[in-house]
Design brief:
- The protein is mainly α.
- Helix 2 packs antiparallel against helix 4.
- The protein has one domain.
- The protein is built from 5 helices and no strands.
- The two termini are 28 Å apart.
- The mean pLDDT is 77.
């Protein structure tokens, strides 16, 4: 059950009559997809909370589990909420995050 009856995650909408090319995000694609997600959502992060709610994700805990080295200042354009969404979302949910974000692309 989703948090919004008008919108369902891509993983739930997939038709059982049409075969999926791939049902998961491969390890080879994961890193690039996470980087792309960060760059894309950083361009328009006004709906970040909606994406988190739609995908039923944890609140941002600023996990910073990628390329930021402790003791170093993050880049000037670093966005901790988008960082958490892009890099701490479970791999299987990345397509749902992107799908939830697409309606708000302007």
């Amino acid at each position: 059950m989703t948090t919004n009856d008008l919108w369902r995650p891509l993983s739930e909408r997939a038709s059982s009559t049409a075969p999926a090319l791939r049902t998961s995000v491969s390890g080879a694609l994961e890193t690039q997809l996470r980087h792309w997600t960060y760059r894309a959502i950083s361009q328009n992060d006004t709906d970040l909370d909606r994406i988190v709610l739609r995908c039923d994700l944890r609140e941002s805990h600023r996990c910073r589990q990628h390329e930021l080295v402790e003791g170093e200042n993050p880049p000037a354009d670093w966005n901790p909420g988008v960082d958490h969404l892009a890099y701490c979302t479970p791999r299987a949910l990345l397509p749902d995050v992107i799908d939830a974000w697409l309606p708000w692309v302007r």
